[in-house]
């Protein structure tokens, strides 16, 4: 595995926003967390809720991002996007955050290579179901790099997506590798239906709702 050991403070990034909130997803749900949202994504999931991060942003170096993160006084940091790994300095940022003593998670689309990510980082990797419109972008070569500290997240728009997820989990033995999270697309799939299917099928996954949508209706910066 190619691991980035250097974390140059001057490495450049494009940042959409940095803010403190509670973690809305993953097994870290509910933990006070600083979010660092990197700008840009090469995908266009039809249900994307962060399209505002596709463009714009502010040019920052790693040192200034570290300083702002530190100002929030929180241990947990989530690097998200967009697709953070679409920026070549993202691995350097992740390493620098780990070196600064943070507990770091990375939210990534599953379309880009995760092998250069610092092994101290918990990778929350999407697999895109057909209803996203981006199923063809799944980089299945990433799966062997996942370990017990990582998580796979599959967002489901309908019953077809659920059946796809079940088959994908079985084919790649995902639940033996790491936690698997299934979420309904808000407004498309009734959460109670998904919960019932999971119990009916005795699927060893974790059902999740996006806490930040329940609390703040997806307001930016919350
Ligand atoms: S990968 Fe994430 S940020 Fe990119 S389009 Fe899909 S949901 Fe949006």
TrEMBL record:
- Which biological process annotations from GO are given for this protein? tRNA queuosine(34) biosynthetic process
Q: What is its EC number?
A: 4.3.99.3
* Key word 4Fe-4S present: yes
Which PROSITE patterns does the UniProt entry name for this protein?
Answer: RADICAL_SAM
Q: Which residues form the Radical SAM core domain?
A: 28-222
Please give the pathway this protein is involved in: Purine metabolism; 7-cyano-7-deazaguanine biosynthesis
Q: What InterPro entries does its record include?
A: 7-CO-7-deazaguanine_synth-like, Aldolase_TIM, rSAM, rSAM_QueE_gams, rSAM_sf
* Binding-site residues, substrate: 22-24, 37, 80
Keyword Metal-binding belongs to the record: yes
Q: Where does [4Fe-4S] cluster bind?
A: 41, 45, 48
Q: Which reaction does it catalyse?
A: 6-carboxy-5,6,7,8-tetrahydropterin + H(+) = 7-carboxy-7-carbaguanine + NH4(+)
Write the record's keywords in alphabetical order, separated by commas: 4Fe-4S, Iron, Iron-sulfur, Lyase, Magnesium, Metal-binding, Queuosine biosynthesis, S-adenosyl-L-methionine
Per the UniProt record, one Pfam family is Radical_SAM
Q: What class of enzyme is it?
A: lyase
Q: Which cofactor names does the annotation list?
A: S-adenosyl-L-methionine; Mg(2+); [4Fe-4S] cluster
Residues binding S-adenosyl-L-methionine: 47-49, 82
Cofactor annotation remark? Binds 1 S-adenosyl-L-methionine per subunit.
> Which superkingdom, per the lineage?
Bacteria
Enumerate the residues binding Mg(2+): 50
SUPFAM superfamilies linked: Radical SAM enzymes
PANTHER family given in the database record: 7-CARBOXY-7-DEAZAGUANINE SYNTHASE
**What HAMAP family does its record include?**
QueE
Its family?
Answer: Belongs to the radical SAM superfamily. 7-carboxy-7-deazaguanine synthase family.
What role does it play?
Answer: Catalyzes the complex heterocyclic radical-mediated conversion of 6-carboxy-5,6,7,8-tetrahydropterin (CPH4) to 7-carboxy-7-deazaguanine (CDG), a step common to the biosynthetic pathways of all 7-deazapurine-containing compounds.
On subunit structure and binding partners, the annotation says: Homodimer.
Designated name of the protein: 7-carboxy-7-deazaguanine synthase
Q: Which organism is it from?
A: Azoarcus indigens
The record's gene field reads queE
